[in-house]
């Protein structure tokens, strides 16, 4: 799968906040999403699609993006939409890239190497 993703045009931006205790996963997700919004804006991205979860968790993501927009220039626009993962195969790319980055962090660089310079990962301090 990493080989197939490597053949796609584009850049993959990953926010990495790890390790995270299970009780802190939502907080870590918010920290990562906050950074991701700012970084994506820097790459001229104004619309982020994420895999839908349940309505309460989706609302948390939306609130996080709304808060992150305060760090962007005043006239900046940034939008978040949730899509069902099964209905949108392009969302699977994010899982493949995240898996490759995680494998590299755990000592197996094979998949990340296949993706090459198409992946930029940013560390996020999570507590």
Question: What does this protein structure show overall?
Answer:
With 127 residues, this protein is an alpha/beta fold. The protein has one domain. It contains 5 helices and 4 strands, in the order αβαβαβααβ. It has helices at residues 2-6, 25-42, 55-68, 90-105, 110-115, and strands spanning 12-16, 47-51, 79-83, 119-123. The strands form 2 sheets. A two-stranded parallel sheet has the order 1-4. α3 (55-68) links the parallel β2 (47-51) and β3 (79-83). The chain is globular. The model has no long low-confidence stretch (mean pLDDT 93).
Tally of helical runs: 5
Q: Briefly note the structural class of the backbone.
A: alpha/beta
Strand content: 15-25%
Shape: globular
Q: How would you summarize this macromolecular structure in one to three sentences?
A:
By secondary structure, this protein is α/β, with parallel strands linked by helices. The protein is 46% helix and 16% strand. It has one domain.
Key features?
globular; 5 helices; alpha/beta; 46% helix; two-stranded parallel ribbon
Task: Walk me through the topology.
Layout: H1 2-6, E1 12-16, H2 25-42, E2 47-51, H3 55-68, E3 79-83, H4 90-105, H5 110-115, E4 119-123
Parallel strand pairs: 1-4, 2-3
Helix pairs in contact: 2-3
